[in-house]
Specification:
CATH superfamily: Aldolase class I
CATH topology: TIM Barrel
Helix content: 40-55%
Mean pLDDT: 96
Number of domains: 1
Distance between the termini: 12 Å
Strand content: 5-15%
CATH class: Alpha Beta
Shape: globular
Low-confidence stretches: none
Largest sheet: 8 strands, parallel
Number of helices: 12
Structural class: alpha/beta
Strand order of the largest sheet: 7-6-5-4-3-2-1-8
Order of helices and strands: EHEHEHEHHEHHHEHHEHEH
Number of strands: 8
CATH architecture: Alpha-Beta Barrel
Length: 249
Amino acid sequence: MKRYYMAGNWKMHKTIAESVAMATELVEKLKGGSEKVMIAPAFTALSAVAQAIKGSSIILGAQNMGPENQGAHTGEVSPLMLKDIGVQAVILGHSERRHSYFETDELINRKLLLALEHGIEPILCVGETLAEREAGKLEAVVGAQLREGLKGVFKEELAKVVIAYEPVWAIGTGKTATPEDADAVHAYIRTVVASLYDEASAKALVIQYGGSVKPDNVVELMAKPNIDGALVGGAALKAESFVPIARFR
């Protein structure tokens, strides 16, 4: 049976106490679940949440990561620091990092390679803006983000990489790509990956959909053959909405 990967990105929300309370509630309510579940609190709450989920099946993720191991990089958090507190996964190239903080494909690739080097599972986010979609540039944009993001990743390492397709116009807007539209882009992602590696690697790749995933659309989205999970934003902030997503079946 297919195992879906449901990830909750808490973004810049929740104090340490609020994060621990949420994590503790999720541990209880997701006990015995069949899906792979990850939560990514703010950096300040990572250590406390690591303790709250200890012994559970929930994976601890970070929302970003610096591109170096250590040094004079004010404000950055290195993979060594993340590993030190139990982080197992990291979200890289999120559209908010690309568009609000102007992160380049080259920088994101450096982070991805560093994450793999340290055994942290990277979730590489790709996706187009509404203007790019309407201009017919969806495949060019997503293809370039994939090719640049995966540069230098060996075939045997690809199994440790997760791709998240997030149409920028559907994040936090309440708009969602139709399940058919989302699945078509996921299929295109597999085509690109097959051209870079091979068909078997492309088929085995885990591709999440991110963009206003909610309890009332998750079943329809997950029913599509090329969608393997969800990268959830707003609906991940409350157990009442994230639990039905993580336990959609």
